[in-house]
Design brief:
Elements: E1 10-15, H1 22-31, E2 36-38, H2 39-49, H3 51-61, H4 74-81, H5 87-108, E3 114-118, H6 122-125, E4 133-138, H7 141-152, H8 156-164, H9 169-175, E5 178-181, H10 188-204
Parallel strand pairs: 1-3, 1-4, 2-3, 4-5
Helix pairs in contact: 2-5, 3-5
């Protein structure tokens, strides 16, 4: 999939299903001097600090969505999200545009030629529009299931519920420019180096 560069500082988006190992790839990129914006982490911070998010979530969910100390009550928000299939769309419409704004502000402070953006819901959120290239981190579902269960200390069914809320891996692979296999057998670092080699060749061409 070919895309025209969006700006002088180009964006490599990292995506993949739960338990695929996106954070492993992000750590490798950071160790190589490539800045990485973690959308999930920054969204959690913005949920606490962004005045528009706070106001609109409160209006949507109710005052109980923030506790007496002003912290987001994730259990209350989760209760709202799971009560109706349309609720997630409403919450995302509040949060995703602010994350996109924050990312662009962060990107404006970076030195190129490449930065990375990690997002589990890259396509679902529309964040792929902010990327010049997309890297899909892939692992078989059985591997991802086991990793997520061990990492989060949750049941297999809880992980499967989260998987069902994400775009299927095969669709992500079709949309992505690169696929990195993180199945526990293929070494990750050589694949990253090969992909980075292609990306930096684009700049020289």
């Amino acid at each position: 999939m070919n895309r025209e560069p969006l700006t002088d500082v180009r964006v490599l988006a990292l995506t993949g299903g739960i338990g695929s190992g996106k954070s492993v790839v992000s750590r490798c990129l950071r160790s190589m001097g490539i800045p990485v914006y973690d959308c999930d982490r920054e969204a959690r911070l913005l949920n606490e600090s962004h005045p528009v998010i706070r106001q609109q979530l409160t209006e949507l969910v109710g005052n109980a969505v923030y506790d007496s100390e002003g912290r987001l009550d994730r259990a209350v928000l989760a209760g709202y999200l799971f009560a109706d299939v349309d609720h997630a769309r409403r919450v995302n419409a509040i949060i995703h545009p602010r994350v996109a704004e924050d990312f662009l502000h962060w990107k404006s402070r970076q030195q190129g030629p490449w930065v990375a953006m990690e997002s589990a819901i890259l396509y679902e959120s529309g964040f792929d529009c902010l990327a010049d290239r997309v890297l899909m981190v892939y692992a078989p579902e059985c591997v991802r299931l086991q990793r997520a269960m061990e990492r989060d200390g949750v049941s297999a069914e809880a992980v499967r519920r989260r998987m069902r809320n994400q775009l299927p891996d095969e669709e992500k692979r079709e949309k992505a420019d690169f696929t990195l296999y993180n199945d526990g057998r293929m070494p990750v670092l050589p694949q990253i180096l090969d992909i980075l080699g292609l990306l930096f060749c684009e700049i020289r061409e």
